[in-house]
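Handout for the seminar on molecular recognition.
Each group receives one record of this type.
Step one: identify the two inputs.
Step two: read the structure output and locate the region that could contact zinc ion.
Step three: write two sentences on what you found, then compare them with the reference statements printed after the record.
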Amino acid sequence: MNRDWHRQHVLGQHASREDRIAWHAEHARECACRPIPESLAVEVAQRDAASAGAGAASAADAARVVPGNTAP
Ligand SMILES: [Zn+2]
């Protein structure tokens, strides 16, 4: 269990659904001492897929080679 992460990320009893989804998405990466509740799992997965997609797109942009600019 990642105690430091938990100390810094306390989810209040009255946190909004959006807060819970964000918390669990991050928790799964940083600690995962407990599973994501089934009622939130789908939305957490969607959130992860969305951020992974954005990351992949920008990585592809960064890796794009300009033709004619690679010759020594
Ligand atoms: Zn944990």
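Reference statements: The pocket of zinc ion is lined by residues 1-2, 6, 27, 31, 33 (CB under 6 Å). Residues 3-59 form one domain.
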